[in-house]
Design goal:
- The chain is an alpha/beta fold and 111 residues long.
- Helix content is 32%, strand content 24%.
- The longest helix has 9 residues.
- It is globular, with a radius of gyration of 13 Å.
């Protein structure tokens, strides 16, 4: 955790990186934004979720920086999670609703 209390997870930097990462083994893209209260709500629990699901690589996607990607992937609510394995989408937990640690872990366990 950094000094602001936010979780430390890799930040998506480019579309090229998105395409490279989604074609790797198991990766979960977490879509959020600085202004999203429900996204801030889950930040403190993300390190635990990442540790409990260490077979996945977690990548944070700033919705505002990648608005075209969000539209292309039909990510219209945040926080949302999109999982890929070797280029194939294996699951999505996409809505505008607040998510709990249990709901996120249940989504990941079902993949």
């Amino acid at each position: 955790m950094n000094s602001e209390g936010a979780f430390i997870v890799e930040e998506l930097k480019s579309m090229e990186e998105f395409n490279t990462l989604k074609n790797s083994s198991k990766v979960v893209f977490m879509f959020s934004a600085d202004w999203c209260g429900d996204c801030r709500f889950i930040e403190p629990i993300m390190p635990e979720i990442e540790q409990e699901n260490d077979d996945f690589k977690f990548v944070h996607v700033d919705r505002d920086a990648f608005i075209d990607l969000c539209a292309e992937l039909a990510i219209f609510g945040i926080p949302s999670f999109l999982a890929y394995e070797e280029g194939e989408e294996i699951g999505r937990f996409v809505s505008k609703d607040r998510k709990t640690k249990e709901e996120i872990n249940d989504f990941l366990a079902a993949l």
